[in-house]
Amino acid sequence: xxxxxxxxxxxxxxxxxxxxxxxxxxxxxxxxxxxxxxxxxxxxxxxxxxxxxxxxxxxxxxxxxxxxxxxxxxxxxxxxxxxxxxxxxxxxxxxxxxxxxxxxxxxxxxxxxxxxxxxxxxxxxxxxxxxxxxxxxxxxxxxxxxxxxxxxxxxxxxxxxxxxxxxxxxxxxxxxxxxxxxxxxxxxxxxxxxxxxxxxxxxxxxxxxxxxxxxxxxxxxxxxxxxxxxxxxxxxxxxxxxxxxxxxxxxxxxxxxxxxxxxxxxxxxxxxxxxxxxxxxxxxxxxxxxxxxxxxxx
Length: 298
Ligand code: ZN
Description:
Strand content: 15-25%
Bound molecules: zinc ion
CATH topology of the largest domain: Nucleotidyltransferase, domain 5
Oligomer: single chain
Number of helices: 9
Radius of gyration: 19 Å
């Protein structure tokens, strides 16, 4: 049996497990495991990889994460706070592992195989069940005290918006005002059921454009890639670009030209595969680091 790289995109509703012979978008085998309890879910994922000749394993996981200990932090996902993700795989499989956020993973996938090639710094933003932000600087995911959490940026409420906000921590942060659940709670209908001319989309662009400006000011990215289910709505990207340009108000001269902004804020190219393709990159890196220095701690 030839050696392969293993990848997991660990999400709040499903774990996508895959193996491939080399990094890239071509996955050899893929299996979806519903996210239930940590014990059940991690055991099923371990079984998927057991018996395969793994060079390394990459895990791109929903957060927030304690990257040093390889665990899940203060997630609202029931039962998963403190979930010992890395230990489960290290003990069962004994392979080099690299662990990062799902959005840092997606950023790596888009950077190496999708819409972010040769763009540095690169930011990936997912707008879906939550809002998450992966940030790559010099090709590396940003880690520090923890990892970027720009989904919880505070946004200026539009005067006519009385919605309380859906974030269990901050109520009306970006995620609380603009995630998929926020759209559904505010309008009584999921975004996928709202027509193109519904006022929801201008409001959505109002909040997301504020985040675009903040990210541009703080990180100075060469590109921001937008993905996630909410971004599937036709026309939303155009509204975000338009509103971002208005909010920047000519201050960032390079982006005053709409053509430049079209290059700055782009849709994801890998779609739903960005996370798993990025996790495969993490697996490759884990194997490389291990061959140079022996097994890394995590
Ligand atoms: Zn929040």
